[in-house]
Amino acid sequence: MIPRIRLRRLIREALEEDIGSGDVTTLAVLTGDETGTAEANAKEDIIVAGIGIFREVFLHSDNDIQFVPERKDGQSVNKSGIIAHISGKLASILSAERVALNIFQRMCGIATLTKKYVDAISGTKAKILDTRKTMPGLRAFDKYAVKIGGGYNHRMGLYGGVLIKDNHISAAGGIVNAVTRALNNIPPALKIEVEVKNLTEVEEALSAGADIIMLDNMNTDDMKQAVSLIDGKALIEASGGVTLSNVRDFAETGVDFISIGAITHSAPAADISLNIVSR
Amino acid sequence: MIPRIRLRRLIREALEEDIGSGDVTTLAVLTGDETGTAEANAKEDIIVAGIGIFREVFLHSDNDIQFVPERKDGQSVNKSGIIAHISGKLASILSAERVALNIFQRMCGIATLTKKYVDAISGTKAKILDTRKTMPGLRAFDKYAVKIGGGYNHRMGLYGGVLIKDNHISAAGGIVNAVTRALNNIPPALKIEVEVKNLTEVEEALSAGADIIMLDNMNTDDMKQAVSLIDGKALIEASGGVTLSNVRDFAETGVDFISIGAITHSAPAADISLNIVSR
Amino acid sequence: MIPRIRLRRLIREALEEDIGSGDVTTLAVLTGDETGTAEANAKEDIIVAGIGIFREVFLHSDNDIQFVPERKDGQSVNKSGIIAHISGKLASILSAERVALNIFQRMCGIATLTKKYVDAISGTKAKILDTRKTMPGLRAFDKYAVKIGGGYNHRMGLYGGVLIKDNHISAAGGIVNAVTRALNNIPPALKIEVEVKNLTEVEEALSAGADIIMLDNMNTDDMKQAVSLIDGKALIEASGGVTLSNVRDFAETGVDFISIGAITHSAPAADISLNIVSR
Amino acid sequence: MIPRIRLRRLIREALEEDIGSGDVTTLAVLTGDETGTAEANAKEDIIVAGIGIFREVFLHSDNDIQFVPERKDGQSVNKSGIIAHISGKLASILSAERVALNIFQRMCGIATLTKKYVDAISGTKAKILDTRKTMPGLRAFDKYAVKIGGGYNHRMGLYGGVLIKDNHISAAGGIVNAVTRALNNIPPALKIEVEVKNLTEVEEALSAGADIIMLDNMNTDDMKQAVSLIDGKALIEASGGVTLSNVRDFAETGVDFISIGAITHSAPAADISLNIVSR
Amino acid sequence: MIPRIRLRRLIREALEEDIGSGDVTTLAVLTGDETGTAEANAKEDIIVAGIGIFREVFLHSDNDIQFVPERKDGQSVNKSGIIAHISGKLASILSAERVALNIFQRMCGIATLTKKYVDAISGTKAKILDTRKTMPGLRAFDKYAVKIGGGYNHRMGLYGGVLIKDNHISAAGGIVNAVTRALNNIPPALKIEVEVKNLTEVEEALSAGADIIMLDNMNTDDMKQAVSLIDGKALIEASGGVTLSNVRDFAETGVDFISIGAITHSAPAADISLNIVSR
Amino acid sequence: MIPRIRLRRLIREALEEDIGSGDVTTLAVLTGDETGTAEANAKEDIIVAGIGIFREVFLHSDNDIQFVPERKDGQSVNKSGIIAHISGKLASILSAERVALNIFQRMCGIATLTKKYVDAISGTKAKILDTRKTMPGLRAFDKYAVKIGGGYNHRMGLYGGVLIKDNHISAAGGIVNAVTRALNNIPPALKIEVEVKNLTEVEEALSAGADIIMLDNMNTDDMKQAVSLIDGKALIEASGGVTLSNVRDFAETGVDFISIGAITHSAPAADISLNIVSR
After folding, report:
1. E16 and D2: CB-CB below 8 Å?
2. Whether D6 contacts chain C with CB within 8 A
3. B233, B235, D230, E149: least surrounded by Cβ within 10 Å?
4. Residue B155 CB partners (closer than 8 Å, separation 6+)
């Protein structure tokens, strides 16, 4: 799902960043001929995301490594559970270990956090959306992990969707002007989303022809009124100040989407370790 | 402090990742001639890190942007405080905003979290160290932010230091063998660090000639005994299970360094926003 | 409008492709100190597109070149008209000339051809759209030239819009299934376009919820019926077999868009020459 | 014949340009498991060029695709003829289709047009030459297609041959000076070609020691006289204003080469389509 | 031992540098179907270094080439001895030959020269060290060859070790200040080396806490005194003016390391040729 | 004369290779604010080559550095002579010093050695030619230095000239076949050179139409006979076993060119040092 060219570039650059002119410890201490098997273990309950990428890092380092996964993307592992077995030359495994874990722990961390939000609103019609608040260079990976966690992807970048924010609106002299300009200029394949702050702006956006209306930092009472006002004539996204405690309240207002920057900009890494279990 | 070539590559790749074939919203809604001034505001108390890089992203997007910082790296800003003023073409500012914030919020986030650990052990001789648990592609940036927060950098990658871990030890048939091999093979410029799990291994590492001994997941009682045993003959690093609540206990055992993966792998983004304040 | 990073990469790669290990003629025959002025002249009536890029190639080769344009993008030049004056070191001008012209002649060629289609349907509500049938590596340039010629851009790539073609439909087991799957899986920012071959499929697409319906290779009678059937409930794009002779007939059926691959895949280069006029 | 490194770079960049952050349609509508066979069909009479590159694009996208060609480079296909069968995962085939066709249609288009010129002068000793008027980034591909169409390659870039044009001549103060300087400075492996406008210049170039004389925009009477004058002491290239109607007249003057920019800068894409024929 | 990513980049860039737009001779003179076997022969006595890289160049050019080595890295070959047999398509072998030899001859040249220095000091405890005086872009290769020749690697780059030279010392206001600053700022994994010119500076460096002391351009009498003074409290490196005639005198002073720039900046290429022996 | 794109890439890659994650010594020991002036001094008599590139490395590292050259390319400097003054931030100068010297010392080394060969044959008509035996990645730099030393460049790569060697000849079934094939297939801009071993082959090559004949490893008596035989009908290159002692004998046989691999594959670095002279 992540384009192969991006995947390979990330792995290549991350390995080069870490290994640089060589893994001096492994080169000095191992002969290079030692073989063995390592296990990747969860050290807390997590949702697996990026198992194929985790595998790919080891193979990029050494084509002869055997990688046997115990889980697929989207499955959960409990604390102490085994995620994968990795066999082959220990020097290859040890040199790739940290890069492989850095990528994989981030992806599992995002999926695990996303899943908590998704579970928190289960039974409502709302969907959890990500944002563009991702790590520089890792957007494809961050957004893939969101999907694995049960979330949905908002636009992949500035190129992939029209979102008219308050600054655009003021620059254009109001919502109607901004939407009208957009209707004349954007590729027909894209919808138009407008960020609004209050019910007056909701009405303006609706009448201007917005396809999606984003309610920014509104309280849930106003959200409910906005949902009534819009009445199915546009999709509705709620944004701003979402936490695990209040996300269900947001969902129950009847909005279509709830977008959350924290699932990518502040997700803690999932706790996963790699241990040599036999030699 | 971050090599200029790496800085420019990150900015170029991050802008390309976000802008791709073009910022369709800005191109559609703005004429391109609108000018104005934006402010970057802290939305919580933070330590500033990466202000020069934040500036550089805007300049990469448009050389004519004026960037006036209110803070230097390492200074604090309180909630609602202004960090910088950015003036110029609004189209340029809006197209670069998200990438600039993504990088800057991460760096401030790391510095702010690091500072909390550093403050927690003030008055002890211990230093906070980072690890290689950084974002793929962002290591130079993550580690720079740690320094700004008052921490110290452990090795920059596998190329930049010898750290003999349990897996290397078992592959080499024991600590003495592993250290002896390392002494024979590594560049003379590098010290040798050995990871140990208990006091017996501390003694082995010491007699084998380790320059630094890393106490991995030991309790503070054992750490104190290790400090006595080593008695200045090697530097001592404590690692594993460090939190803001227990870090002072660690420091008071007398170790030289405490390394913490979480300051880079799980630092939440600092909350910073950009607002157009005049046009 | 073309992202600066892409612009500079194209210029760098094109210059390297042409100059390689060096311009042996210029190095051998000129001393390097000769200066003078060249003129870029139209050798047929054309629409100018890419004048800024044309300039940029010379400046990339030599920062001290003076480039004075006589036209802006979108303006016309008649046969023999002057497009720009280029002054500076002759060695720099001559080494960059062919690359500069190759890019510029293509862009003007596309804009000139597009303009002919746009003029042919003037007075109707239809818009000319481009396709993804562009030169590998030059899409941003080809599509920019289409806009300059008065056309509109369809999606920039597979990432930038959903277009469900006959093959997708058959793979998914029919239009309804295909559209339903798309509705569940795509980013909310994107509309859904469906390619149809006949009026039955038009109805299916409409009821499935398509935002845009592409009439593929239909005759104008069927197109008119499709327009009636759809009746404003979706946008309509006509595609296939469009020529300068029949494009107006297409437009007069009432469709919203007419897409034409030939304006990019088969546009002849505009005839432009560069002549040293003084030394 | 096209260096492998360039081939792979073009394919990688073209796929990235088109697919970007992902083929949203295929990802949304297909499950990814559908398999089937597609046919590439000629929709007009064409000369095949680049069949191996066409295949390579699909394999780059998915190594498991089966590609069975019906034609080799240089062979003709009639309208409706099958060029190749492509089997495998439909998602892989559909995501690579447009890029594969964009490259292949251009190459076949160039070869087909070149072949028309070659056929038009059959029986004469003249050879059709290409120029440096190629698509930026595609020169190796454009020039390979010319050879497949029966043409010959002029220099590959400014690095690969000495061609002293009118501007070089005036900068050097005359033909004799220019050629003399070149004789002293160029690598011995390269011949010297001089562009001339009339018979006086032909004599100058000849006496100065030119290896090849290019007759620029001369009429056929003057060309014949130039051929007599030169009398085998240099190779002769005719250039400028060549069309399918007059190319035979040019050839019959006795020149060795006729160079034509249009076969690369203005060749229309060959009409080729890809259709899923079984699933 | 050379990171695989660097190895492949060097080979790709070197092949592109040499082959560029194509090997015109091989393409013109061979049909492409000729097969045969070539031998790589030593034309003088050499130490083999880089045999795996030599092989890799041919395989990068053509995966079907068979490469059978007669020697491993570190083994010697006498004049006329066979180093390897290379079989496959002659066009592939001939196009890769020069690049393969250029890399391999340099590496063998360095290893052969290094070995002479290593042999000259056999029986002493001193080790031969390289420097950063390597070919731009080839450091990993140059330093690998030094190890194969029996030498040891000093730091791989400015990132990999602290070496305080006279300029740093004067900038910091003396040795003590410079070392003190370094102790406070460098990563704990790195030792501190200080360059000194006389015995007074030796004492300063020692008392300041230097881990390694580099005696720069001292005579052997002073070196002996320095060895006495230091008395095992720091490692000692001798540097400057080392030749094959005086290196043993240096070694016999009791220093730990002797560093020699000439083994990389001035090593002559080993004389090796490639000959087709059967077709 | 070296294309700017290649120059900047080499400098960027060489700086990144050396500095990597940062110059730990300079960062630790200097405050970054110290300024001063350094001198580049010759430590032996040399020919300067690459002074502009030497300057460019410092400017790439820090745009504010002042670089004042005392010599131009091609001029000589005696032992202890000053080549250039470099002023600015000491941290910038020290971090760039080694890379700048590595490139510059190699280029001066090549020019100095070439000049010795050129002087050795002064008064004869022969010219010194280089070969493709250059450092991988540095060909443009190596060949530029040869020209500065008074030599001439043979082809820049396999793309830039036809040289039919013994292996091509045997693959093609003899000299006549090989040359005939080449005449039919190569771009008209290129001459044909044939390598021969004896006088019989000289005659074959001449009658086949070779433009240049390379006498490989012939003794001077045979060379003289070859010169008589050829009698101006082709250019003549002597190759193989050339030393400073015998090069004049080669030249006096009357050949046009003498090619020498050693001037690039085995040139020792010129001895140049950089010293801070004021602060």
Report:
1. no
2. no
3. B233
4. B132, B161, B163, E187, E189
Residue with tokens 């961390």: A109
C190 and chain B: CB distance < 8 Å anywhere? no
Are residues A254 and A125 both part of a single domain?
yes
Instruction: Verify whether the Cβ–Cβ distance E28 to F162 is below 8 Å.
Output: yes
Give how many domains chain E has, as a whole number: 2
Q: Are A192 and A174 in contact (CB under 8 A)?
A: no
Residues D168, D87, single domain; the answer is no
pLDDT class of A162 with cuts at 50, 70, 90: very high
- Asked if E212 lies within 8 A of B188 by C-beta distance, the reply is yes
Catalytic residue among B44, B45, B98, B166: B98
The low-confidence residues of chain B, meaning pLDDT below 50, are: none
Residues 6+ apart with CB under 8 A from E231: none
Smallest CA–CA distance from F8 into chain B, residue: B5
Catalytic residue of the set F165, F181, F197, F224: F165
For residues F199 and F271, state if they share a domain. Answer: no
Q: Same domain for A255 and A141?
A: yes
Concatenated DSSP letters of E163-198: EE-HHHHHHHTSHHHHHHHHHHHS-TTB-EEEEESS
Looking at the structure, tell me whether residues A193 and A123 fall in a common domain: yes
Query: In this complex, do D22 and A5 lie within 8 Å of one another by their Cβ atoms?
Result: no
Which residue among B191, B237, B257 places its CB closest to the CB of E190? B191
Find the domain containing D68 and state its range: 4-112+267-278
Please provide the average confidence, as pLDDT, over all residues in chain B.
96
B160 vs F: CB within 8 A: yes
Nearest CA in chain F to C30: F1
Catalytic residue among C98, C127, C191, C248: C98
Residues E242 and E147 grouped into a single domain: yes
pLDDT digits (tens, 9 = 90+) for E55-114: 999 999 999 999 999 999 999 999 999 999 999 999 999 999 999 999 999 999 999 999
Average pLDDT over residues A43-64: 97
> Which chains have 3+ CB pairs within 8 A of C?
A, B, D, E, F
Q: Is B130 an annotated catalytic residue?
A: no
CA dist., res. F1 & res. F7, Å (int)? 10
ipTM of the predicted structure? 0.95
Cβ contacts of B185 on chain A, cutoff 8 Å:
27-29
Report the alpha-carbon distance of residue B233 to residue E251 in Å, rounded: 30
pLDDT in tens, A60-98: 999 999 999 999 999 999 999 999 999 999 999 999 999
Dist. CA D42–CA D145, nearest whole Å: 17
The CATH number for D63's domain is: 3.90.1170.20
pLDDT reading at D1 higher than 80: no
Q: Are residues E131 and E247 in the same domain?
A: yes
Residue of chain A nearest E4, judged by CA positions: A61
Catalytic status, residue C6: no
The average pLDDT across C7-12 equals 94
Q: Answer yes or no: D6 catalytic.
A: no
CATH label of the domain that carries residue A176: 3.20.20.70
